[in-house]
Amino acid sequence: MSNTNPNTRIRALAVRSEPYLYAVLRIVAGALFAFHGVQKVIGWHGQFMPQVGSQLWVGGVIELLGGTLIALGLVTRPAAFLASGQMAVAYAQFHWKLAFGDGMWLPAVNKGELAVVYCFLFLFFAAHGNGVLSLGARRATVVPGRAGGLEGRRQRSALIFFRRLAGGRVKPPAVGGFPAK
């Protein structure tokens, strides 16, 4: 007898589709970020092209290379961490400008929303890694709750350690953000 509870089906669908939706988010965000770099480095569809070697040009190179690496899923963690830091600097230096008066520290006022969103999105990518549909994937294991490679071995080792520590009274970890049954 199958469980026809709509919440259970939605949870199951969410768990199955999460790796692929993450991959789509990573690919689209990386491609958009790379396009910002193309505008600065090559001058394609941009208002101006900064002088080679300037801070804006170096930022464009980080955007172009970092965005491309993130979209392809190659060395996603370091590329996303660098891109996140670049967006934090871009927000502080070019949008906020350390001005507290007239609400200038607010992203909606200083037009820095995109820099803030990119900053935290890339920080999430740096924590999450390549994921599926990436050129840097060691293993394309998509079975929910069973990560492959070194990360999967660490998760299993940690689970075994905590089960032994608690005398076997530990429930399995949550899968995909949903509590285990």
Element-level helix/strand string:
HHHHHH
Q: Helix- and strand-based class?
A: mainly alpha
- Fraction of residues in H or I helices: 55-70%
Q: Domains counted in the coordinates: how many?
A: 2
Task: Identify low-pLDDT runs.
Answer: 139-143
Strand content: under 5%
For the record, give the distance between the C-alpha atoms at the N and C termini, rounded to a whole number.
Answer: 17 Å
**Average pLDDT score:** 83
Please tally the β strands and state the result: 0
Largest sheet: none
Rg (CA only) = 21 Å
Tell the overall outline: globular
Summed up, the helix count is 6
Compose a concise summary of this entry.
With 181 residues, the chain is mainly α. It has helices spanning 6-41, 55-72, 76-96, 107-110, 113-128, 149-165.
Description:
With 181 residues, the protein is an all-alpha fold. It has two domains: 6-137, no CATH class; 144-181, no CATH class. It has helices at 6-41, 55-72, 76-96, 107-110, 113-128, 149-165. The radius of gyration is 21 Å and the shape is globular. Residues 139-143 have low confidence and may be disordered.
Characteristic key phrases:
181 residues; 2 domains; mainly alpha; single chain
List the helices and strands and how they pair.
Blueprint: H1 6-41, H2 55-72, H3 76-96, H4 107-110, H5 113-128, H6 149-165
Helix pairs in contact: 1-2, 2-3, 3-5
